[in-house]
Design goal:
10 helices; about 75% helix; transmembrane helix; transmembrane transporter activity; about 230 residues; membrane; transport; two-stranded antiparallel sheet; mainly alpha; globular
């Protein structure tokens, strides 16, 4: 919300802050359910560093989503998807070689393992293909509030795959988060007028449509001369 305020000039009403507070209350309920279910026993050896990395990752994810909203609304969704596919493959490949090379080398490959990797890749492909569409018609903040409910879906899978213990607080947390999410989406935000600057205004054609726009301008100029 802070990044959207300064970068996208989004202006919020009181109901939006109340809705976010309700969603955070739902997240707190989910954490409490994890503690009661004993899932915190799997904590790592250096919790402080882990918490710092999680906060850093969440902050960078927020920057990524706000920049994504700016690009898909002001520039070009196709250009965004192309650049994410190109540079995402390069950066993720480098991280894979540095961080997880030994883990990948120790995998005992069979058709089930390969099928799971393919299914995961398809899920991520659908996520990054449809998220720009959703962000374009809503906002990065509302999308992230909706993503808060993903932990409950992972819990349902964990009940069957990893033997997680179920608690009624999970249903309560899901309900509270959904109430906050609906409350947030019930009232649209407004956009403030940006401060005048010497920078040229951002157009909505994007780099991938720039050639077509130039061609249209040349045709119009030629017709005017005739």
């Amino acid at each position: 919300m802070a990044l959207s305020w300064f970068i996208l000039y989004a202006r919020y009403r009181v109901i939006h802050f109340i809705a976010v507070a309700v969603c955070l209350l739902g997240v707190g309920t989910m954490v409490g359910a994890d503690i009661l279910a004993g899932r915190e026993n799997n904590s790592g050896s250096d919790v402080l560093i882990g918490d710092i990395l999680v906060l850093l990752g969440a902050s960078l994810y927020a920057v990524s989503n706000v920049c994504e909203e700016y690009i898909v609304k002001k520039l070009s969704r196709q250009e965004f998807l192309g650049m994410v596919g190109l540079f995402g493959t390069i950066i993720s490949g480098i991280q894979l070689l540095i961080v997880e090379y030994k883990d990948i080398a120790s995998i005992h490959w069979d058709w089930k393992t390969a099928l799971l990797f393919v299914a995961f890749a398809l899920c991520m492909f659908c996520l990054y293909s449809f998220m720009p569409l959703v962000i374009k018609v809503t906002s990065a903040t509302s999308v992230n509030l909706g993503i808060l409910t993903a932990d409950l879906y992972s819990l349902f899978f964990g009940l069957f795959l990893f033997g997680y213990k179920f608690s009624g607080l999970y249903i309560l947390s899901f309900t509270v988060i959904m109430v906050g999410f609906i409350l947030y989406c019930s009232t649209p935000t407004r956009t403030a007028e940006p401060v005048e600057s010497s920078m040229p205004p951002v157009t909505s054609i994007g780099i991938d449509n720039l050639g077509l726009k130039l061609e249209e301008n040349l045709q119009e100029a030629h017709s005017a001369v005739l």
